[in-house]
């Protein structure tokens, strides 16, 4: 399978390395800034290009891994190709590529991908294609990334994407605020690792609605006030603590 990677960011690097080590031939890496793509292109023995006039038209797959807001613009700059053109966004619909290419699709890795993403990480891959006949190639590509893949439509993918933002990005924001608080207060954030890991692991076996603990669900007002008092030096964390405590107390999700 011949692949062209378009983009040089976190997901472009992830796909270039995974596909290349899985046996695909990454023939070119496209980026608007040559200096941003030469290292990546060299690492997978691909040609670096910064002009679509140089695009290899014989590839089987063109993987657009650029910022969500740039996908349509980049696609509009591409010449017509016979291979399948896909984007990697959870939020953008397949239709963003419609009309421009005969064969189009989506390969969305449902994982937080950055330079710390290891080969061992589990990555459900969500696929979509505009033609039934393209499903085989998309499935073969997904299998180079992960044994876990399935076809979903754009609306289903968007629902999972917003869910991923809440469970991953929002919790990481809470970890960051807490990390700063611990550093400022001279206590070891790493002591929280077992409780973080246990909460995640329990979700493999139980629904989160039956797992809630803590002062808010118990309506332990005295403890909540103690917490707000010690958080008084951390305005942002204090605000978030109040908001989430109020929401948990009012919430109907724990009532059954
Ligand atoms: N990171 C994740 O966890 C993750 C997971 C699943 C899916 N995705 C999706 O993967 C895609 C890429 O995300 P990412 O995390 O890899 O982003 P990123 O690391 O921020 O990289 C963005 C890339 O887009 C390029 N770009 C931005 N605007 C452009 C334009 N107008 N023309 C040409 N290239 C442009 C950037 O090029 P320059 O270097 O020249 O700015 C860079 O190569 C997005 O659709 C995202 O939703 C991300």
From TrEMBL:
Origin species, per record, is Polluticaenibacter yanchengensis
Domain (Pyrroline-5-carboxylate reductase catalytic N-terminal) spans 2-78
Q: What is this protein called?
A: DUF2520 domain-containing protein
Name the source's superkingdom: Bacteria
Domain DUF2520, chain residue ranges per copy: 124-247
């Amino acid at each position: 399978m011949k692949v062209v990677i378009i983009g040089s960011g976190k997901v472009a690097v992830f796909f270039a390395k995974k596909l290349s080590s899985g046996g695909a031939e990454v023939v070119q890496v496209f980026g608007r800034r040559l200096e941003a793509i030469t290292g990546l292109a060299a690492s997978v023995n691909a040609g670096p290009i910064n002009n679509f006039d140089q695009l290899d038209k014989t590839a089987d797959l063109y993987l657009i891994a650029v910022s969500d807001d740039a996908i349509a613009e980049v696609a509009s700059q591409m010449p017509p190709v016979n291979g399948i053109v896909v984007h990697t966004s959870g939020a953008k619909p397949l239709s963003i590529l419609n009309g421009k290419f005969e064969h189009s699709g989506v390969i969305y890795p449902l994982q937080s991908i950055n330079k710390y993403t290891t080969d061992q990480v589990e990555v459900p891959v969500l696929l979509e294609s505009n033609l039934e006949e393209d499903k085989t190639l998309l499935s073969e590509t997904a299998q180079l990334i992960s044994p876990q893949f399935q076809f979903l439509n754009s609306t289903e993918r968007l629902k999972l994407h917003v869910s991923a933002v809440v469970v991953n990005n929002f919790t990481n924001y809470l970890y960051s605020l807490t990390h700063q608080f611990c550093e400022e207060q001279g206590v070891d954030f790493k002591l929280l690792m077992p409780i973080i890991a246990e909460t995640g692991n329990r979700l493999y076996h139980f629904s989160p609605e039956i797992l809630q603990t803590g002062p808010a669900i118990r309506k332990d007002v005295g403890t909540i006030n103690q917490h707000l008092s010690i958080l008084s030096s951390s305005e942002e964390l204090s605000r978030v603590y109040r908001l989430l405590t109020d929401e948990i107390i009012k919430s109907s999700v724990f009532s059954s």
